Amino acid sequence: MPHIELEYFAQLGDVAGRRAETRETVAGTAAALYDELRKDYGFALPSERMRVAVNAVFRPWDQELHDGDHVVFIPPVSGG
Amino acid sequence: MSRFLIVDTLADISSFRESLTRSEAGGFCSFEGWVRHTNDGRSVSGIEYVAFIPLAMSEGQAILDETQARFDITTSLAMHRTGYLEVGDIAVWIGVAAPHRDAAFRACRYVIDEIKKRVPIWKREHYVDGCVEWVACHQDAESGHVPNRMDESPETRV
Questions:
Q1: Is residue A80 part of a domain?
Q2: Which chain A residues are closer than 8 Å to B140 by Cβ?
Q3: Chain A contact residues (CB < 8 Å to B)
Q4: In this complex, do B123 and A9 lie within 8 Å of one another by their Cβ atoms?
Q5: What is the domain-level CATH number for residue A34?
Q6: Which GO terms describe its molecular function (chain B) (predicted)?
């Protein structure tokens, strides 16, 4: 199974109880991986309110994932 | 060189301003976002900012590039802090130099608005009563509702 490097920010880190992990997954897309994480950790935010970055670039939810990809799910930002 | 900076210590604002001086610029506009002592009626002791740094830097630079293309400006620079900031500290600084004032004002406004919408930086407010909360999270957790810029309370706007 592919290994995905995940980093969690803001409330996602609090809810998951970690800032980063390497995860083995069969999820083939960013959307499928987020669904998997919502089931495992109970993230409240639906994907419609999130964005996703793969290898530090914003990507669409149907982005295919490959072994070694670095994925960050981006909750609503609050800088400034 | 990137003109969007993420800085984890107190920054020297005068050097930012100095770096934007150009003989062709006749107007300079800057914006500073400060840590305010209240939010939503609660006393704030400080704010912690966390960034997804590689994407925050590239998205911030993209905003400055767009600003250069959209407005008749000479140059611009923006800085966002990370780490724990106390009341009165500068969380964000934007400077724009332009031949004329109108473009400088409008470009400066554009940069802060886009930073708040798009750059992956999050703030966690520390309240005097000891509570610590990610801004907007308390609403997300309860209702899945994310405030947009219009229904944000005035106190949470920079």
A1: no
A2: 11, 44-45, 49, 75-76
A3: 7, 9-11, 14, 44-46, 49, 53, 56-58, 72, 74-80
A4: no
A5: 3.10.20.30
A6: molybdopterin synthase activity
Flag if B134 and A78 touch (Cβ within 8 Å): yes
Domain count, chain A: 1
Indicate the domain borders of chain B.
Answer: 4-122
Instruction: Please give the residue range of the domain that contains residue A61.
Output: 3-74
For the question of an ipTM over 0.85, the answer is yes
Distance from CA of A10 to the nearest CA of B (A): 6
DSSP letters, B64-76, are HHHHHHHS--SEE
Q: What is the enclosing helix (H) or strand (E) of B42? A: strand B42-51
Hey, which CATH number is domain B4-122, 1.20.1440.80, 3.90.1170.40, 3.40.50.720, 3.40.50.10330? Answer: 3.90.1170.40
Q: Are B49 and B122 in contact (CB under 8 A)?
A: yes
pLDDT (tens place) for every residue of chain A, 80 residues total: 899 999 999 999 999 999 999 999 999 999 999 999 999 999 999 999 999 999 999 999 999 999 999 999 999 999 99
